[in-house]
UniProtKB/TrEMBL annotation:
Belongs to the glycosyl hydrolase 51 family. This is non-reducing end alpha-L-arabinofuranosidase. Residues 340-359 are annotated as: Disordered. Residues 1-29 form the signal peptide. Pfam families: Alpha-L-AF_C, ASD1_dom, CBM_4_9. One of its GO terms (biological process) is L-arabinose metabolic process. It comes from Hymenobacter mucosus. Its EC number is 3.2.1.55. It comes from the Bacteria. It is an enzyme of class 3 (hydrolase). The keyword Hydrolase applies. Residues 493-681 form the Alpha-L-arabinofuranosidase C-terminal domain.
């Protein structure tokens, strides 16, 4: 995910028939297609196979995507480890009038990594002697669902016998209450299951001392039992289901600029995100203060969702895991800090970009992290890092095939670090496919130099990013037509049409953006011999805690919905086919001419021809599809249509399917299929017919 700069915006942006009650055009054309609207699908001249990874997902912890989103822990700052404000998320009940003191200290902590906790002291017994946790813009609590509350606690001087645990709604009304008793002088974990009596979108957790005196509390958790596959440290069910429904070919994680960090100290370090959840040390999220118009100082990463959970999620949704690792460079839009390439490096500026220090980790440290990650994912139980995976409950390897080195870095600093990374990985793991970076812009001198050098190094996959206005996507549908067909392949790793401007808080997930992306994707599919991976970005956004727009899936504490962009992606990823089929317009018209876009694939598993069509027009458009050389043609096909007369239409929590696909069948009487495309529509036709 790029940081917004005006210069970058300039770089990226250059370059009526009434519908039926279902909102679809009639299945059989009422008007004859013109010659210009005749499309020939060369079923008898199949092209490249469609990569199983063709359409996938890009996850980054931005917009509360992890904590407060996919990771359903409801307690914010559960371990009091946020260094700049140890009480983030917490406040004293009624101004803490009933507490003599409450503070965060580190006297005989639970562990060396979890070394801060809250100490509460009450002069007299009171039901108000305690703390309230606000959650992530509140806590989503569902009536009669079960939530596991747990806490590590110990008693100090006085006669505190336990804790009263209360779940409340936004007005302070009690929804559930339980007691924790039997506190001792040593740290001990206590847990109870709580069941709210009503639903609250903005609930809160209230903890109060029972008795006067002192008690210490730490690792305070409120976790729903309803998680995907009912895992103890599982993920939010509705959000995972939206991902699984897309049939994604891959999951790229954990970002994005989150990989880089504003400084190297703030970079994402995967080894800090595995093992015991209670021992994972949180880190401030690099998006917390990136945009002044969306300042979020309480945004941090708890790493409850860590690399093990990412691998597990990939497995659950049937996607290839594609982890991205730091290449020894902090975000170049921020500090541009560089890891020294040798241990003898000295502090000071590095060629005018970034700096390093003699005591920083060297590039070798970053390379070793990559090698260790591959062992963690694929190694046997007898290997040091494979043993850690097994200890976490996954005996079988994750079968990692891809690893990304750096996120949208650019310039000679990236290339000089990428090459030793590549050589080290290939020396030990020659079958691993490496994803490399062409930088944050889709063209220009730095892009050209990076692409040229990476191809010379025989990089398996180059990651290209583009955020631009909707018309850029329609105008660049032929972007990959002239790319080399052999050697290095392309990963369209981050893209999304921006309705206003890159990084603007006013961007919307409009139908105009989504249909323009659908048009662009016909160009990706037509070039399946060059493009092997593609993903919209970003993936998730909390409606009250976002930093970047637009985003594919929006949610609050209880509900979620897919945008029109989500449905475009889903229509591609659930209809990927197995083999690309060449498509021609009458008169050799270019793809996109007259705002008609098309691509086609064969699905050899089902025996169908899949044709994707975008009509970016305010009028219905009859088309004729000539299935050249098709065999064993069926009599009925299925049409999936995503359409709206309003290009500014969006989906919302209140109207989650305002723009959503509808299905109908249509007749197939010969190899010349006619169909009328609805105005402003994206249509997928599945036609039974073998090649």
């Amino acid at each position: 995910m790029p940081t917004y700069f005006p210069t970058r915006f300039a770089q990226l942006t250059t370059g009526l028939v009434a519908l039926s009650s279902l909102g679809l055009a009639p299945a059989v054309a009422q008007n004859k297609p013109t010659a210009a609207n005749t499309i020939t699908v060369q079923v008898n001249k199949p092209g490249a196979p469609i990569a199983k990874t063709m359409y996938g997902l890009f996850f980054e912890d931005i917009n509360f995507a992890a904590d407060g989103g996919l990771y359903p822990e409801l307690v914010k700052n559960k371990s009091f480890e946020i260094a700049d404000n140890y009480l983030t998320g917490w406040k004293g009940i009624n101004g803490a009038a009933a507490l003599k003191t409450y503070t965060v200290i580190s006297d005989r902590p639970i562990s060396a990594t979890n070394n801060h906790f809250a100490r509460l002291t009450a002069a007299t017994a009171s039901p108000d002697a305690g703390l309230i946790n606000e959650g992530f813009r509140g806590m989503g609590l569902k009536q009669n669902d079960e939530y596991t509350f747990s806490v590590y606690a110990r008693r100090g001087p006085g006669n505190v016998t336990g804790l009263t645990v209360t779940l409340e709604d936004e007005k302070g009304k009690m929804l559930a209450q339980s007691q924790v008793s039997g506190l001792t002088n040593e740290w001990k974990k206590y847990s109870v299951v709580m069941k709210p009596s009503a639903t609250a979108a903005k609930g809160q957790l209230r903890l109060a001392l029972n008795g006067a005196g002192t008690a210490d509390i730490d690792v305070i958790s409120l976790f729903p039992k309803d998680t995907y596959k009912n895992r103890e440290n599982g993920l939010r069910t509705d959000l995972v289901q939206l991902l699984k429904d897309m049939n994604p070919g891959f999951l790229r994680f954990p970002g994005g600029c989150i990989v880089e960090g504003r400084t190297l100290n703030e970079r994402y370090q995967w080894k800090e995100t595995i093992g015991d959840v209670a021992s994972r040390v949180p880190l401030i999220n690099r998006w917390n203060m990136e945009f002044k118009h969306r300042s979020t100082p309480d945004y941090y990463q708890s790493f409850g969702l860590g690399f093990f959970e990412y691998f597990q999620l990939s497995e659950d949704i049937g996607a290839e895991p594609v982890p991205i690792l730091n290449v020894g460079m902090a975000c170049q839009f921020n500090s541009a800090e560089l890891a020294p390439t040798t241990s003898t490096a000295t502090s000071g500026p590095n060629a005018g970009e970034g700096h390093n220090h003699a005591d920083d980790p060297t590039l070798d440290t970053f390379i070793q992290d990559a090698l260790d990650l591959i062992e963690f994912a694929n190694g046997p139980a007898s290997s040091p890092w494979g043993a850690k995976r097994v200890a976490m409950g996954h005996a079988a390897p994750f079968n990692l095939k891809f690893i990304g080195i750096g996120n949208e870095q650019w310039g000679p600093q990236y290339l000089e670090r990428y090459e030793p990374f590549m050589k080290a990985i290939k020396a030990k793991y020659p079958t691993i496919n490496i994803v490399s970076s062409a930088g944050p812009s889709p063209d220009g001198e730095l892009f050209d130099k990076a692409s040229k050098r990476l191809r010379e190094l025989k990089a398996e996959v180059i990651d290209e990013h583009y955020y631009a206005k909707p018309d850029w996507f329609r105008q660049n549908v032929g972007r990959y037509d002239n790319y080399p067909t052999t050697g290095t392949k392309i990963f369209a790793g981050e893209y999304a049409a921006q309705s206003v401007a890159i990084g603007s808080p006013d961007n919307k997930n409009s139908w105009d953006c989504a249909i323009s992306e659908a048009a662009f994707m016909t160009g990706l599919e037509r070039n399946a011999d060059k493009v092997v991976m593609a993903s919209y970005a970003p993936l998730f956004a909390h409606v009250e805690a976002w930093q970047w727009t637009p985003d594919m899936i929006w949610f609050d504490n209880l509900k979620a919905y897919g945008t029109p962009n989500y449905y475009v992606q889903k229509m591609y990823s659930t209809n990927p086919g197995t083999t690309m089929l060449p498509v021609q317009r009458a008169g050799n018209a270019k793809n996109g001419q007259d705002n008609l876009f098309s691509s086609a694939v064969a699905d050899d598993k089902t025996g169908e021809i899949i044709v994707k069509l975008v009509n970016y027009s305010t009028e219905a458009r009859p088309v004729a599809i000539n299935l050249q050389g098709v065999k064993k043609l069926g009599k009925a096909g299925k049409a999936t249509v995503l359409a709206s007369n309003d290009l500014n239409a969006v989906n919302t929590l209140e109207q989650p399917t305002n723009v959503a696909p509808k299905e109908e069948s249509f007749k197939v009487s010969s190899s010349n299929v006619t169909y009328t495309l609805a105005p402003n529509s994206f249509t997928v036709l599945r036609i039974p017919g073998k090649r």
